[in-house]
Amino acid sequence: MHALTGDSHAAGFYEPSDKQPGWWDIMIGPGKGMDTDRYFVICANVLGGCMGSTGPASVNPATGKPWGSAFPVVTIGDMVAAQKKLVEHLGITRLLSVIGGSVGGMQALEWAVRFPEMVASAVPLATTTKHSAQAIAFNEVARQAILADPAFCGGDYYESGIPAHGLAVARMIGHITYLSDEAMREKFDRRLQDRCDISFDFEADFQVESYLRYQGGKFVDRFDANSFLRMTRAADYFNLEKAWGNDSAVAAFTRATCPFLVVSYTSDWLYPTYQSKAMVQAMKKNGLDVSFVEIEASFGHDAFLLPNERMTKLLQGFLDRVHGSLHEEGGHAL
After folding, report:
1. Does the annotation mark 325 as catalytic?
2. For residues 30, 300, 288 and 31, what is the CA-based torsion angle, rounded to 10 degrees?
């Protein structure tokens, strides 16, 4: 399951002209963490996004125009329910593992507790059972940047022009949360961008300013503002502890039956390790088979997307163990 602004292109190259491989190419492929010489990997675009599955930019068959403001707010549960329909359409009755980081990790948790009969194991990475007030606050500021753009037009902007400035600022805000203080200090510190001294105006004096502006501008070319609003809302609304009438994480995980590999990163301040530990504690109180690892990394929340030999070996070992136990039990996973 991909993260907030990811897509189904998880690994490899679609065309020889592609400038870069899929977003998790470091982890998916022959001999990698998810060894495609042994396992078949499915990655679907999330419902409500803008990369293939139906979203606000998709054509509404009733009007012949993009859904725009008429597209409903979706939940992590909606995304997983759509993924389940895809899996069933493919004739698959059980999955060896559901794996994802960040918002993809929320989907992995949802899979494990909502459809336990279909999930042989789950690997939630750099994620949480519910957003903190701080995480919601950053998402709200990002959404307000889009809503305040005059070009937003209430969400019906497809004929008049996209809210490019608001979407770029929203991405800049989000990007700050994906990095850590250490990563930003090492990458940028207070170094100036293409100048010898500060300008005393509002141009991009510092490298970090130039970097954020570049990331924001690049994002506008590939993502839809309406989808960004709905994806961040889905993440904010996700609360595994309150789903299906539960009143705690312990109660939520009574529905789960599979082994878990939970991974956090030391410098991730968006979904810090204490949230993963609380998740693990709730799993263990239900007697679940849980492996937990906190990986030392200086890159912040984005660490799960970057090469890490320890993470590769952890995932290889976990999938091997789950696959082996299924064969010992005479079970199967497709």
Report:
1. no
2. 10
> Is residue 301 annotated as part of the catalytic site, yes or no?
yes
| pLDDT of the residue at 331 | 56
Looking at the whole model, is its pTM more than 0.85?
A: yes
Active-site residue, selected from the candidate residues 9, 224, 301, 302: 301
- Report, as an integer, the average pLDDT of 306-326: 96
Residue 194 bears catalytic tag: no
What residues does each domain of the chain span?
A: 1-42+90-130+241-334
Q: Which one of 102, 121, 267, 276 is the catalytic residue?
A: 102
| Pick among 1.20.1560.10, 1.20.1600.10, 3.30.300.10, 3.40.50.1820: CATH of 1-42+90-130+241-334 | 3.40.50.1820
Name the catalytic one among 7, 205, 268, 302.
268
pLDDT digits (tens, 9 = 90+) for 150-173: 999 999 999 999 999 999 999 999
